[in-house]
Design goal:
Elements lengths: L1 E7 L7 H8 L6 E8 L5 H9 L6 E7 L4 H11 L4 E4 L5 E2 L3 H10 L7 E9 L15 E4 L13 E6 H6 L14 H9 L3 E11 L13 H4 L2 H14 L4 H15 L5 H8 L3 H15 L1
Parallel strand pairs: 1-2, 1-4, 2-3, 6-9
Antiparallel strand pairs: 4-8, 5-9, 6-8, 7-9
Length: 288
């Protein structure tokens, strides 16, 4: 069985599109867990309505105080019964064969590698993929940290093994409501786990106003501890990637430059003040 997991916040007017796509799945061997992250719209009323219906799959709806997507994922992983944990945002939806393909792909895995899970491709439509799809290959076996090497840039449709995610929870910092999901995906990759990436589009999305993708620098400024955690992990996972290191330092600088000096930022990151200045200069040139 697969767990389709949806964290949601004030998306009661949009989430029905995802629900309808789940009803159309050719394989109904899944559960749908929804963690409502403190919505103040009619999300709860919507789920009261659909939970009263006869559904061909189990729906679990829970609420929590607003704490961010990462806390919602941590909560969902703990109650999931599926072997694979498939995160689908509340303003997106799935192709009709998404669950069927994930099940087939999972069964293709052998014992040749340490597997984190499988992944399909996200698309703006069923014909237009987001980012790269890996070229002329049915699938590619790679770590999350190798995606650029294999032409797998952009958001993808990963389904991780639930038990693995229980061993790699998202760090939670008091007073902060955001940390990029990359911190967990790269930590898993750093420990030697691969995904099998398929080029088929199974997940359709639109980056809407008010979503995390569209929130720009604000989410980093409001969550500096999470940004610092991410930046230090980036430098650990990509020790020889100069461009990544510079970009990581610059992102942390952007998050805290109004409250911290260059010297303090360099100390936080464990780099020299000179390197920090270089990263800031390079970042400003890129932005110009």
């Amino acid at each position: 069985m697969i767990t389709v997991f949806t964290p949601t916040f004030n998306r009661g007017h949009l989430i029905d599109t995802l629900y309808q796509s789940l009803l159309k799945q050719t394989n109904k061997d899944f559960e749908w867990i929804v963690i409502d992250d403190g919505s103040t719209d009619r999300t709860e009323a919507y789920f009261t309505e659909i939970l009263a219906k006869h559904n061909p799959f189990e729906i679990i709806y829970r609420t929590q105080p607003n704490g961010g997507k990462h806390r919602a994922i941590n909560a969902g992983v703990q109650i999931a019964k599926g072997e694979l944990f498939f995160i689908v945002d509340s303003d997106d939806y799935l192709t009709e064969d998404a669950i069927e393909k994930l099940s087939e792909w999972r069964n293709s895995l052998d014992d040749s590698k340490k597997w984190a899970g499988v992944s399909g491709t996200r698309g703006y439509s069923s014909e237009q993929c987001i980012g790269g799809d890996g070229g002329n290959h049915a699938y590619i076996d790679a770590k999350n940290t190798q995606r650029e090497k294999f032409g797998l840039c952009g958001d993808k449709a990963e389904a991780y093994f639930t038990e693995l995610l229980r061993r790699y929870p998202f760090p939670e910092f008091k007073g902060e409501n955001f940390i990029t999901e990359e911190v967990v995906w790269n930590a898993i990759a750093f420990d030697g786990y691969y995904l099998r990436w398929f080029k088929d589009i199974i997940y359709i999305c639109e980056y809407l106003e008010g979503g995390l993708t569209q929130s720009g620098d604000t989410k980093f400024k409001n969550n500096p501890k999470g940004v610092l955690f991410w930046a230090k992990l980036q430098m650990l996972v990509f020790p020889h990637g100069l461009k990544r290191k510079l970009a990581s330092v610059y992102r942390y600088y952007k998050a805290v430059s109004e409250t911290k000096s260059i010297k303090e930022i360099a100390q936080d990151l464990g780099v020299s003040r000179l390197f920090c200045c270089l990263a800031v200069t390079a970042g400003k040139i890129r932005k110009a």
